[in-house]
From TrEMBL:
Residues 213-224 have a biased composition (Basic residues). Residues 161-232 are annotated as: Disordered. The keyword Zinc-finger applies. Transmembrane segments: none annotated. Pfam families: C2H2-zf_KIN17 (PF25095), WH_KIN17 (PF10357). Signal peptide: none annotated. This is C2H2-type domain-containing protein. It comes from Bicosoecida sp. CB-2014. One of its GO terms (biological process) is DNA damage response. Belongs to the KIN17 family. PANTHER family: DNA_RNA-BINDING PROTEIN KIN17, KIN17 KIN, ANTIGENIC DETERMINANT OF RECA PROTEIN HOMOLOG. GO terms for molecular function: double-stranded DNA binding; zinc ion binding.
C-alpha cells in the first residue's frame, strides 16, 4: 500500500508534472528520430536511443533502400502539409511560415530533415514548380495559395464560366440588334426628309413653281408711286 501511495505521490510531484508538461510541447528537432518516430528530451536520451536494438533495426532497413525511405517520408510530409493548407486556408493566399508553424504543432508530423527538401523555401518552390500552389516571393517572405483541382470544383467553374459567356453573348446580341434598328430608323427619317425637300424641284416644274411662289409673294404689295420730275 505504501508503495502504491508513493507512486501517486511521485505522479503529482513537481518534477513529474514538469516532465509531462514538457512532453506535451515541441521538443528540439535534433533529438528526434524519424525512423523510429521517437522524440528524446535531451542529448543523453537521444544517445541512448541510437544505441538501442530497435533503432539499429530501423537503420538497417534505411540502409537497404535510403531513396525509397526518403521518398516515402517526402510524400507523407507533402500530403499532410497540403491537407492542412487546403482545409484550413482553402484557396486563400497565406504566408508559408504561418502554415508551417501550424503544421509542426502536431508532434507526430514528419520532420522536414527526413525529406528531400532541405528548407521550407525549397519545398515552396517545389509546390510552385509542380503547379500544386500559386507562389510569390515578397519582402516578407514566400506566400502560397492552394490550387483546387477537384473535378467537381473544376466542373462548377466551367459551368459558371459558360453561363457568364452566354449572358455576355446575349447582351452583345441585344446591343447589336438595337444598333441595327436605330440605324435603320435614322436612314428612314433621313430618306423621308430628303424626298419631301425635293418634291417641288422636278425636271419640268422647277421654274414654274419658283415663279408661282414669287407671284404669291408680290400679289399683296401696293403699286409703286411715280417719282416727281426734277425741279428746273
Amino acid at each position: 500500500m505504501s508503495k502504491k501511495g508513493g507512486g501517486k505521490k511521485d505522479f503529482f510531484s513537481p518534477k513529474a508534472i514538469a516532465n509531462r508538461w514538457k512532453a506535451k510541447g515541441l521538443q528540439k528537432l535534433r533529438w528526434y528520430c524519424q525512423m523510429c518516430q521517437k522524440q528524446c528530451r535531451d542529448e543523453n536520451g537521444f544517445k541512448c536511443h541510437t544505441m538501442s536494438e530497435s533503432h539499429m533495426r530501423q537503420m538497417a532497413v534505411f540502409a537497404e533502400s535510403p531513396d525509397a525511405v526518403m521518398d516515402e517520408f517526402s510524400a507523407e510530409f507533402e500530403k499532410s502539409f497540403m491537407t492542412l493548407l487546403s482545409r484550413r486556408y482553402h484557396v486563400r493566399r497565406v504566408h508559408a511560415n504561418i502554415v508551417y508553424n501550424e503544421f509542426i504543432q502536431d508532434k507526430e508530423h514528419v520532420h522536414m530533415n527526413s525529406t528531400m527538401w532541405s528548407s521550407l523555401t525549397d519545398f515552396v518552390k517545389y509546390l510552385g514548380k509542380t503547379g500544386k500552389c500559386a507562389i510569390d516571393e515578397t519582402e516578407k517572405g514566400w506566400y502560397i495559395q492552394w490550387i483546387d483541382r477537384d473535378p467537381r470544383t473544376l466542373a462548377r467553374q466551367q459551368a459558371a464560366a459558360k453561363k457568364k459567356k452566354a449572358e455576355l453573348d446575349d447582351e452583345e446580341r441585344a446591343a447589336h440588334e438595337k444598333a441595327v434598328a436605330d440605324k435603320a430608323k435614322h436612314d428612314a427619317l433621313q430618306k423621308k426628309a430628303l424626298t419631301k425637300g425635293l418634291a417641288g424641284y422636278g425636271p419640268s416644274g422647277g421654274k414654274a413653281a419658283f415663279a408661282k411662289s414669287k407671284g404669291k409673294k408680290g400679289k399683296g404689295r401696293p403699286p409703286a408711286r411715280a417719282k416727281p420730275p426734277p425741279a428746273k
